[in-house]
Design goal:
The chain has 226 residues and is of the alpha/beta class. Helix content is 43%, strand content 24%. Strand 5, helix 4 and strand 6 form a beta-alpha-beta unit. About 3% of the residues have low confidence.
Length: 226
Amino acid sequence: MSEEKETKAANELEEIIKSGGITAGKEGNAIHCLSIVGQIEGHYALGEGQKATKYEHLIPLLVSIEESEDVKGLLVILNTMGGDVEAGLALAELIASMKKPTVTLVLGGGHSIGVPLAVAGKRSFMVPSATMTIHPVRINGTVLGAPQTYRYFHDMQGRIVDFVCRHSNISKEVLEELMMCPDMIATDIGSIINGNEAVEHGLIDEVGGLDAALTALHDMIRQKTV
């Protein structure tokens, strides 16, 4: 391997380590692949040994992708257990508001606050074996048993439901029914659905993997440049 190729490979590896993503393709006609994995870290740092996606790293990265003349589209690959609700929703809103072609692909899991992220792209894909856990808003730690607390939970859940319904074809009634299902998750309420079920409910656009997601993204890029 030449010194130039070694330097390029080292730079790409460093980019992946720092941001969980990489820009691929020819200069001036590239796409950026961004992975959202593990738990989405928000206002509080997670403990050592936990795989995390830090939202404060992704926000400036998404801005730079939107402003880059070389990057023509964004592929977001998800395998996340969820995490900080406000951080996850903030990232979803940012992705949804981008003008550039965006495609999301769920591999493994798109659980909890990963659901809004999964539908944030202009097109969404999910492999058949992947799953989504859909449940009401929950919080860890000390909770005050006051009306204001329950109102906060209700309002936050309403914002999530509204976002998901605006960026997918699922109805509010079906989504809330899945959220409140009492007999699918042990010691909890909610639903676990696979890729085919997500498409049937209108939550995800299409069952498919990397090839389907990349094909859709390149088609969107071509349509935008025509």
